[in-house]
Amino acid sequence: MLEILINLKFIFKVYSQKMKWIFLCIIFLVLLNAIGEIFTIITIKPLLNKIISNKNIINQTNNFLFLKLDDQNMLLISLILIISLFIVLSLKIINLLMISRFSAKTGTLIASNILNKNVLSKYYNFNNYDSSFITSTLTTQLEVTVTGLINIFRLFSSLIICLFIFTGLLINNFRYNLLITLFFSSVYLFIYLLVKNRLSNNSFIIKNKSETSLKIIKDGFGANKEIIANNLQSYFKNKFIKFDWEGRKAKATNYVLKLLPRSIIEFLAFTLIISICLISLNYEKNSISILVYVGSLAFAFQRLMPQMQCIFASWSYISGEKASIQNILNLLKKINNQNFINGSDSILKFKDINLVNVCFSYKSPREKIFEEINLKINKGDKVGIVGKNGSGKSTLIDLLTGIIRPVSGEVLVNGMDIHQKSNEKYLYRWRNSFSILTQNPHLLGDSVLENIAFGENLNEIDLNQVYESAKKAKIYDFIESLPEKFLTNIGETGSKLSGGQAQRIGIARAIYKNKNILIMDESTSSLDENTEIEIIESLREITSKMTLIIISHRKPILEICEKIINLD
Fold this sequence. Notes:
With 568 residues, this protein is α/β, with parallel strands linked by helices. It is 63% helix and 10% strand. It folds into 2 domains: 332 residues, ABC transporter transmembrane region fold (Up-down Bundle), CATH 1.20.1560.10; 215 residues, P-loop containing nucleotide triphosphate hydrolases (Rossmann fold, 3-Layer(aba) Sandwich), CATH 3.40.50.300. It has 18 helices and 11 strands. Helix 3 packs antiparallel against helix 9. 30% of the residues are buried. About 1% of the residues have low confidence.
């Protein structure tokens, strides 16, 4: 719990100045709410005394603040109490709304920062987290963290309100109320010590099992054909049930532990009040004073118990979900506040790209893919890159496009090192200057239209350019045969298309971008011979004045190239 509170500072780093002011407003409202509570506690005792005795028994009740406590002012004081209770209620509602909205906004800010760092990063991270881990983090665990943040607010606001209520109780009757306060605080402390380890252990069970369950679901989609072909449905079903049940069972246990103190405290509180009432029967002379005390104590309990339960329930939730919350905070630790300059439409007037003494390795510096490689490609060059599997063809493309950084050496575009800090804008302009087509282009679970015009809003898409690109990619006739033509949904990752159709959608996407540099990485490998020949002829036409870089094992498409680089 303490570790979570310390690490909350990393959340504050994502707040704007406006969010920080809202945070201060929430604290201010909590204080106003607490002042209202102490006011109602102090008010109730003299009012009850007057109502029950109908006469001034004790001198200190003769006056209430600036008003004399007589029959004429009874109505006014009662109205003040009712209005005070209404104001306290209103402040609670406003504060709850502000806390909920503030926490929700915090969740969006945290999600965007984690997404930007781990998914939409400046460079491709080959040491990145497993996608199931990030998916679980940005969905289930982030939802838990937002709820946890709400509970942290509730915990501290309830703590402040409880302190003010306790102050009101001590003002009314210091000795007895101090003993009662210590007694009930001890009960909560005892229960806390009893359940804290169980809650903490369950938090790790919930986090780990939810991540594993999500991974099983993901594997079920990815290996769906193999599961059906090998009759593995029962295996995956039983595996999912096992991990899902363990996680939900831990959540159910935490829910019970969270509510446990309420029933115990209610029982003890009512037992105490009934006991005091029974004792008052033996003291007729002080019966009115005892009844007044019992009435004010019951009123205080009515205000206090929900706050004390809120403290315990909030603490229980935070402890029970500690692993998930801490996971989010640990990810935020690793995020710097660098604002990536993306989304720019500016492109370069390309002259040449030059790799100078470039070295690159994925893991160990000793296992280098490239060591002091030198390569220059000029505007208008048609370059083919060949080599056996694992020779570094795709890695070379990643270096040329600036998707990854070399371990050492320079990647110069028009003489500018694109990886220098001062040239960051130049890197993004370079990425805007080419179209890249991979062997397996990722297709969105949207329409054909949105997949060809990848990254553009529907109202910004140039339909004529989409149609022309589809024709050049030899996919237009197929699209026109679909039920909804270009608006047909192609399924998740293009599941409704064949491999060749998916590649042609990818080719149409690259052509649609209409850049002066086209980079193709095994992008015709799934096409039949006739379709490949047709697309090669289209490429000859559209790339006559373009710079073309091709990776392929297939000789027909390499015939377009004027220069071949062999990495073997």
